[in-house]
Amino acid sequence: MAKVKVANLREKPQAELTKTLEQYRRELMDLKVQQVAGAAAAKSSKIRDVRRNVARVLTVLTQQARSEVRSQYAGKKYAPKDLRPKKTRALRRALTKSELSRKTLRQQKKEANFPIREFAIKA
Amino acid sequence: MSSTKAQTARKAALKGTQGQKVKKVRTTTAFRLPKTLRLARTPKYVRKAAPRFAKLDQYSVLKQPLNTETAMKKIEDNNTLVFLVDVRANKHQIKDAVKKLYDVDAAKINTLIRPDGIKKAYIRLPADVDALDVANKIGFI
Predict the structure, then answer these.
(1) Of B60, B52, B87, B71, which Cα lies nearest the Cα of B122?
(2) What pTM was estimated for this model as a whole?
(3) CB B98 within 8 A of CB B123
(4) Minimal CB count within 10 Å: which of A23, A106, B42, B97?
């Protein structure tokens, strides 16, 4: 059996995906048993594909679950911490761009009334 | 019964007009922690977005059956199957896994950890089930 197409997996609902997962894991188990019993070379390569398929299904499952939670918390103030941007600890605590760009009223007026002038010399 | 002026005056004279302080009766000398309101948690966000699926489920417990000479002997003579099993699995989990995956009840299970770190489980089957049949059905004879 070839690699399963992830695009096909993504359109399946969660219940179906869990069933597919069980199928693949059963197959993996059978393949392992056959390997112990002494199998042909074809089976040995198949086991790799099945393992990867299991990983694909699990990936799609977690992605679906997480995106669902994300949409629940979209626009809210507090989201689960593993859905917030990871960056680095220091970056998360740093000033935001808007906070950095804030100016005092005094400075705003200065800049408005005395802007940096640029002159060009006529050649 | 409406109090007349005389009755209210009598009350005022005896008990005063302000109302009396009620002192709580203390039956012990110790001051114990008073019972206060305890609210349940209402978290603003769920801590973990999506809960992890079980890592050690029935498919992960049993790794592979053994078909060495001694294992074969065990199947024929003692009606037991020999499996390599995940190290973190315990006998209850092994029993459940065998039940779910191969539809066989285990009479008893003995485990040991091999010198190379892999757990080996001797799964004894009840007398009415033939281990050889089960091994054939699983496919590793």
Answers:
(1) B71
(2) 0.77
(3) yes
(4) B42
Burial of B42 (0-12, 13-18, 19+ CB in 10 A): exposed
The answer to whether A14 and A64 are in contact (CB under 8 A) is yes
A6-76 folds as: Helix Hairpins (1.10.287)
DSSP H/E element including A106: helix A105-113
What is the pLDDT averaged over residues A87-99? 95
Q: Which residue of B has its CA nearest to A24?
A: B59
Best mutation site among B44, B52, B59 for testing chain A: the one with the most A CBs within 10 Å?
B59
Question: For chain B, what percentages of helix, strand and coil (3-state, to nearest 5) are there?
Answer: 30, 15, 50
Arithmetic mean of pLDDT, A29-45:
81
Spell out the residues 6+ positions from residue B60 whose beta carbon is closer than 8 angstroms to its own: B86
Among the partner-chain residues B49, B101, B140, the one whose CB lies closest to the CB of A82 is B49
